[in-house]
Each structure stands twice: as structure tokens, then as C-alpha cells.
Amino acid sequence: MIHNIRREAKACSNILPLVCVGLVLASSLDRAAEGPGAGARITWLSLTQSSPPSKIAELRRDILTFLEPLRRKLFGDPDMVLATAYFVSISPARGQNVFPSATSTNVDGTTACVLSATQISQLRQRIQNTEGANEFAAPRVTAFEGVRSTLSVSRTVQIGGTNTAYGPRLDLVHHVNGTNLHMRVIADVTEAVTNVLPATADAPATESVNIRTMFQSALEARVPNGGGVAVWNRPSGKADKTYLMIVCPTIQTNFAAPPPARKHGSPPQ
């Protein structure tokens, strides 16, 4: 048994440098992904082709995937993360004081910023106290880090005899790095819009329904535990609403409580 323990310890000591080098490299790539102009801790992704991750993010993911069995052997199972997404619509000409100060702007005018837990709480309080601001969905999910999860609140409407889903949807992958989390976020908000065709001399007025995308964004963000990222779009017209999304991940740490100490000579419980 002692021989097996020594052999296990030797194996761990041999792979420890590899794990350390890999984690350092992954961390360096994480910082490099932010790059100049990334808005401190935000990197915008393309919305084409299902918004694939950046090349640096893919390399980082491959390194972490390769090291995952060794990491589990040394440090145990990956962390669980509870993520909540708040979706808010804000009427035009109202609620302009709700938004926090943006630190990054995408080419399409979508803006974002990273917030602490305290700033998230203050922002949600402003939303609740602002006329014309409506928090219409707040899905949440708990998942292991590195595992893709989906948060959505969907409804269906019949279009051409087929049930079609619409509503807010968010695809999320996160990795824990100490007290920070690196998130990859792909989100959109769709609504069912009814179009009325006016009557003509040959036909009465008719209605048709289609699904319209009101908000969409794809980004990578590095946020503090309990904090999050706020993202909001630029309305296409003066009469259009602004859509705000707040994504808040929290690391779930569950430590098993040790049994109470037993006094010498007392019977076991």
C-alpha cells in the first residue's frame, strides 16, 4: 500500500508542472483575447455562422479540455455555476437614466459593460423604480463550468400551420478562474409581430404573423463572481424599445461539513 501511495505521489509530481504550464498558458490566452479596444474585459464575437468562438478562445478551450482529466485528479470536480439572465425592455423616451456607463461598443451600436455584484444590485433597483422599464424574463440555470447551457423563456405561435417558438434565449459557457469567470454569451430576443394587410376591392383585410428579432449579441466577457455583464442595443427607430440583458454568474461552492469532534472515550454517534 505504501508503495502504491508513493507511486501515486510521484505520478502527481510528474504531471503537476504540465498542469501549471497549461493553466498559465490558458490564462495568458484569456488575457490576450481581450486585446486592445476590447472594452477592458469584453470581446465582441461575430453573429454569423452561429457565432463561433474566436481562434484564441478555441485554443484556450482545447488546452483546458486536454488538461481537464489531470485537473480533476489534482483539484477535484469542476465548479458548479448558477447563472441568471435578466431581460428588460425599456420604452422610448423613458428610462434613459437606467443604463450604466458603457465600456465597450460593438460595430452595430450594441453596448456593454462589466459590473460588480453591488453594481448589479443597484442597476436592478433602478429598473424596478423606472417607469417604462419592464423585466419580462429572468431564466436561470446551474451547470458545470465548461458545459454549454441554455437559458430561455419561449412561447409558440402558429405560422403557416406550424408552431414556431419565440422569446429570449441565451447560450452560455463559463470557465472559473479564481474569483472571476470567463463567459461566452450568445443571445437573442425574438417577438411575434402581427402585420395587418388593408382591405382591397377584391379582398377583406387580413392579418399575418412573423417572428422578428428585437435584440441579438455575441461576446466573451470576464466578470467577477456574483457580478455580471450588461448588454443593450441601439433602437433602430425613435419608436422602438431598447432591450437590456444582464447575465450574472455565481460560483456554487459546497463543502461537506466535517463530523463533530468526539471526545476521547465517548461512544460513536
Outline the fold blueprint:
Layout lengths: L1 H33 L7 E3 L10 H21 L4 E11 L13 E2 L5 E5 L1 H12 L4 E5 L2 E5 L4 E4 L2 E5 L2 E5 L1 E10 L2 E18 L8 E19 L3 E5 L9 E11 L17
Antiparallel strand pairs: 1-12, 2-5, 2-6, 2-14, 3-4, 4-13, 7-10, 8-9, 10-11, 11-12, 13-14
Helix pairs in contact: 1-2
Written description of the protein model:
The protein has 269 residues and is an alpha+beta fold. It has one domain (2-252). The protein has 3 helices and 14 strands. Strands 2, 3, 4, 5, 6, 13 and 14 form a 7-stranded antiparallel sheet that branches. A 5-stranded antiparallel sheet has the order 1-12-11-10-7, with helices on one face. A hairpin with a 2-residue loop joins strand 8 (155-159) and strand 9. Helix 1 (2-34) runs antiparallel to helix 2 (55-75). The chain is globular. The chain starts with a helix and ends in a 17-residue tail after the last strand.
Write a short abstract of this structure.
The chain is α+β, with helices and mostly antiparallel strands and 269 residues long. It has helices at residues 2-34, 55-75, 117-128, and strands at 42-44, 80-90, 104-105, 111-115, 133-137, 140-144, 149-152, 155-159, 162-166, 168-177, 180-197, 206-224, 228-232, 242-252.
